[in-house]
Design goal:
By secondary structure, this protein is mainly beta. The protein has a single domain, classed as Roll (Pnp Oxidase, Chain A). The chain is built from two helices and twelve strands, in the order αββββββαββββββ. Strands 3-2-6-9-10-5-4 form a seven-stranded antiparallel beta sheet. A three-stranded antiparallel beta sheet has the order 1-11-12, with no helix packed on it. A two-stranded antiparallel sheet has the order 7-8. β2 and β3 form a beta hairpin. The longest helix is centred in the first third of the chain and has 9 residues. The radius of gyration is 15 Å and the shape is globular.
């Protein structure tokens, strides 16, 4: 059996892009979290998934039927990634954002923007797998912020 550290190191050898998942709480306040466990699931219907740790406070806002956003970060948005990965309670303080077409918080200057509705979530170990149906999608030009082996990287051209 592999140790938790070895498992983490092995998974870290898979390079991933970085996204910030955003959501409004029941009072209309924005919340967000940096995640790299994000993938497309289905084209018809258009579905994505994100994995959220049970310990994160933002998980409570990802309920069935709730709207949320996915912001795929650009290579120069490392500070945004770090900011939303922090343990700060008010992660949107001092962060520029606009409501998307569905009203969810969307961050400027990213590579792609998805507005989704939570279809369902599935407990899986210490995380929940949140499946979202994509309602709106938009893309911009640029290069992705990459995470590999515990460090941010840039895509070489």
């Amino acid at each position: 059996m592999s140790s938790e550290r070895q498992f983490r190191l092995a998974c870290g050898r898979y390079s991933t892009g970085i996204v910030v998942a955003t959501v409004l709480d029941f009072e209309g306040e924005p919340h967000g979290i940096t995640i790299n466990s994000f993938t497309s699931v289905s084209l018809t219907p258009p579905l994505i998934l994100v994995c959220l740790d049970h310990k994160t406070r933002v998980l409570e806002h990802f309920q069935p039927g709730k709207l949320f956003g996915i912001n795929v970060l650009n290579e120069f948005q490392r500070e945004i990634s770090d900011h939303f990965a922090s343990h700060k309670r008010e992660r949107f303080n001092g962060v520029e954002w606009k409501p998307g077409g569905t009203g969810v918080p969307m961050l400027p200057q990213g590579l792609a923007f998805l507005e989704c509705r939570v279809r369902n979530s599935v407990p899986a170990g210490d995380h929940d797998i949140v499946i979202g149906e994509v309602l709106e999608a938009r893309v911009e030009e640029g290069k992705p912020l990459i995470y590999f082996a515990g460090s941010y990287r840039k895509l070489e051209s």
